[in-house]
Write a structure and sequence with these properties.
Length: 627
């Protein structure tokens, strides 16, 4: 299922007050991602001494594991909630790890100050256990080296970089020579996770947007404590060596635009640090700057009932997204509808495990955690508590032409009197979608109620969402979404949204009103280098298969000017005032010309019916499309 736009934050765990000043004694064995850094001040983020593991003893651990079948350890057995484990037993104030056992900390925020953290713990082999080593993993990153264990207690320290928000640390004793079938058993105690505690912490939330291979926009969270910021942009070689991109990347803002870089689609890394007077923060956790190129489009190929879009192959592309639009330029101020549907195409059906749906009748619209009814559609709000997108979501909208405003109307009802509905407008700002306006209705019932909302604050990349406010279901019918467009201002409605792994797609059956235009854009989709997220190229510029802005240009005369120009159903013949003009349909039958008149070197006439025609001017013939 698809994750929601609204992000659900991981829980942060607070240490008991008595442990706030707890520090680990020096003189620890050191291994893993770096030696002890005596120049860095640390503070304790997490501490566990297993004093609540009261059953069993070191000589005779409890017979049953303390973790349940879902790996959860009861919160009343640990100082902080959220610990998990596999084959973890109580041993009288100590944790005992059985064969194939592993111990997991709660989710904790290890992302600050470069993601550096230090974990210290005591461990020893159980009597009679095979040889084992102390192994630590966080966010799928394992300690590079491990301490070999004995049956005597050892205090072990590992120092890591690259911690993340919502991270965890996994601890186990393992046979490093045969980890897949390890049978090591061990005791674990006194776990301390520490993070740097500098006088000035590094800025958080570093992200980027609009990467086109040679430039991007960077964003981060600042604060009053910072006077200025410095960014570090660098590349990483295959041997792990780092090479800084030269330049003075300093600013007093919380954003920075990089331009004119060497083209590099997946090799840049970025960090930021803040200055407060004479103090400087550590560098933030590195962010990988990755992207994928947009495809190079070929000229559209006109067919009898549409057109073919094709493009060149893009390295590392997984698929391509093709969006075809109707472009409307009103002569007067008017409402331009982006959606107007009674959902008559919706029918109940068994979705199985699939809860996210879309419909050809509403291209690009996403219905997350859907509940299909006869002639209307529902959204199951309970899924939102799991972080999924339980919502009706529009395609990407360009609202810049309407001053960032959009209007919505629909009927709504619920199956739970506590559940209302929110109509929210999101706009992409600072590298992510942010909610810019919202209209809430809390007084829904099981009877239909008409919701009307006018939202503002949108931009050229906005999304409209209809979201249940609680865990019940919300049902929606008769949805209308429109912009109030000024005369002469272009507006676009998505008519087709298609994906393909190939390099072409055929568009058929577009019903383009007279005076409007058909246009399209394509973008590439690929995977990041670690396969953890999708990469999206910039959209190609809007391309008009029949010419730009509803004007179809066909052929050139000897002066280089268009000899045929078509606007809607009107045909203009230029610089050929003496030639005989004849029009035929595809069967060869002549077509009578309506409203034929001349103005100097230009002759104009109308072809009333849509279709494909052959226009003969003297000795030349051209094929045109009237829509």
């Amino acid at each position: 299922m698809r994750k929601a736009i609204i992000l659900f934050l991981s829980c942060l765990y607070t240490l008991p007050g008595a442990l706030a000043d707890f520090h680990v004694n020096a003189g620890r064995a050191e291994a893993g991602h770096g030696a002890e850094d005596n120049t860095t001040d640390y503070r304790v983020l997490l501490y566990e001494d297993f004093s609540l593991f009261t059953a069993g003893s070191e000589e005779r651990p409890s017979a049953n594991p303390v973790n349940d079948q879902l790996q959860m350890i009861p919160d009343n057995k640990t100082l902080s909630p959220g610990w998990q484990g596999v084959e973890i037993y109580q041993a009288g104030g100590i944790a005992y790890q059985g064969i194939d056992g592993k111990l997991f900390t709660p989710n904790i925020d290890l992302s600050k100050n470069g993601g550096k953290f230090k974990i210290t713990f005591r461990m020893k082999l159980a009597p009679g256990s095979p040889d084992g080593w102390a192994n630590v993993v966080h966010a799928n990153i394992s300690s590079q080296s491990s301490v070999k264990l004995t049956e005597q207690w050892q205090t072990i320290t590992y120092i890591f970089d690259g911690g993340t928000r919502g991270d965890y640390v996994a601890i186990r004793a393992v046979d490093m020579n045969n980890p897949s079938s390890s049978r090591v058993k061990a005791f674990i105690d006194d776990i301390v996770v520490e993070v740097p505690d500098p006088k000035v912490e590094s800025p958080t939330g570093l992200t980027y947007d609009n990467f086109d291979g040679t430039g991007f926009n960077a964003f981060w969270n600042g604060g009053a404590k910072y006077d200025r910021y410095e960014l570090r942009l660098y590349t990483v070689g295959t041997d792990g060596s780092e090479t800084d991109v030269p330049g003075d990347f300093t600013t007093t803002r919380t954003d920075y635009q990089f331009t004119d870089l060497d083209e590099n689609w997946n090799g840049y890394r970025l960090q930021v640090r803040g200055y407060a007077g004479t103090e400087v923060s550590p560098w933030s956790t590195p962010v990988s700057i990755e992207g994928i190129a947009a495809p190079a489009l070929n000229p559209a190929q006109i067919t009898d009932d549409g057109f073919i879009i094709s493009w060149g192959n893009v390295e590392n592309a997984y698929k391509y997204e093709v969006r075809t639009f109707i472009e409307h330029t009103p002569a007067d101020d008017e409402q331009f509808f982006l959606a107007d549907t009674d959902f008559s195409f919706v029918h109940p059906r068994d979705l199985g495990s699939e809860t996210d749906v879309g419909f050809d009748e509403m291209p690009g619209w996403f219905f997350g955690c859907a509940d299909l009814q006869e002639g209307y559609i529902g959204v199951q709000g309970a899924f939102s508590y799991l972080g999924y997108a339980a919502q009706i979501e529009s395609p990407r909208l360009n609202l810049s032409g309407s001053g960032g405003k959009i209007s919505v109307e629909f009927k709504a009802k619920n199956d739970d009197s506590r559940t209302g509905v929110a109509v929210a407008l999101f706009s992409r700002e600072g590298g992510d979608y942010q909610m810019v306006d919202e209209h809430r209705i809390d007084g829904l019932s099981k009877n239909w109620y008409t919701v009307r909302a006018s939202l503002s604050g949108g931009g050229d990349n906005s999304i409209l969402a209809i979201i249940p406010t609680r865990s019940g279901n919300v049902y929606v019918d008769d949805l209308k979404v429109w912009q109030n467009v000024k005369a002469g201002v272009k507006a676009h409605r998505l008519e087709r949204f298609e994906t393909t792994t190939g390099n072409s797609i055929t568009v058929k059956g577009i019903n383009c009103p007279a005076g409007d235009a058909v246009c399209y854009s394509v973008r590439t989709v690929g995977a990041s280098s670690d396969k953890s997220r999708w990469l999206y190229s910039p959209d190609t510029e809007l391309t008009y298969p029949y010419g730009g802005s509803a004007i179809q240009e066909v052929g050139k005369d000897s002066l280089g000017e268009p000899s045929i120009r078509i606007i809607g159903h009107t045909v203009h013949i230029e610089n050929n005032s003496d030639a005989t003009i004849r029009v035929f349909d595809l069967t060869g039958r002549p077509v009578p010309l309506s409203d034929l008149y001349s103005d100097g070197d230009c002759r104009t006439f109308t072809i009333p019916s849509a279709g494909i025609y052959l226009i003969n001017i003297g000795t030349t013939t051209s094929k045109v499309v009237i829509r």
